[in-house]
Amino acid sequence: MKSRPARRVAVLPALAVAAAVALSTLSACSAGGAHDAGDARYATDYANHQPLAVVGYPSTGSLGITQQVVWRIADGKADALAGLADRKGDAAGKGVPEKTAENWIKAFGKGAAGKVTAEFYDEGSVRQEVVLYFHDTGQIKQIQVLATNANGKDAWKVTMAEPDPGEAVAVSPWVPKTPGELGSKTVR
CB of 182 within 8 A of CB of 118? Predict the structure, then answer.
């Protein structure tokens, strides 16, 4: 009988070690794969919108900001859309991004709620021209997205300097009528 208590004593530390290893493994996995509020927002947005078709070569940042622009237009959220604007340079004028957001939502809201193709032109590590094709309405919208540094944090923003409704719907002459016509290269 003396051997039984010894076994119990040996088994208990072994169980404790196994539990500690399992707990530390779970903690390490969850720390490395932790999701923050931004990840949860993105997952919700992604689930609530039609997938964005992509042509060309976006960077992770240019694709992310473009998805946000389309989603905010589709949702009709002018404040959230204006919040994606680059606030430096010409677009920094008082109320310009907000008015641009209203124009984009009014002009493209219906199309953004349906099937959309985004064509990404040229290399997109710092700045990229993107043409949005709204298939349900036949509309086309060219936007420019760019990497910025705000408050010491890298972020992608969109140029929003179209306070006139006519500017918002104007299409540059070089923009093709269908995605991929130019091989995702701007005409120089």
Answer: no
Residues in Cβ contact with 180 at an 8 Å cutoff, skipping those fewer than 6 apart: 55, 119
Q: Which residue has the tokens 């008082």?
A: 94
CB of 143 closer than 8 Å to CB of 124: no
Q: Give the H/E segment covering residue 101.
A: helix 96-112
Strand pairing class (153-158; 139-150): antiparallel
Place of tokens 């705000």: 150
Question: pLDDT per residue over 113-166, tens digit each?
Answer: 999 999 999 888 888 999 999 999 999 999 999 999 877 888 999 999 999 999
- Mapping DSSP onto H, E and C, the string for the chain reads CCHHHHHHHHHHHHHHHHHHHHHHHHHHHHHHCCCCHHHHHHHHHHHHCCCEEEEECCCHHHHHHHHHHHHHHHHCCHHHHHCCECCCHHHHCCCHHHHHHHHHHHHHHHHHCCCEEEEEECCCCCEEEEEEEECCCCEEEEEEEEEEEECCEEEEEECCCCCCHHHHHCCCCCCCCCCCCCCCCCCC
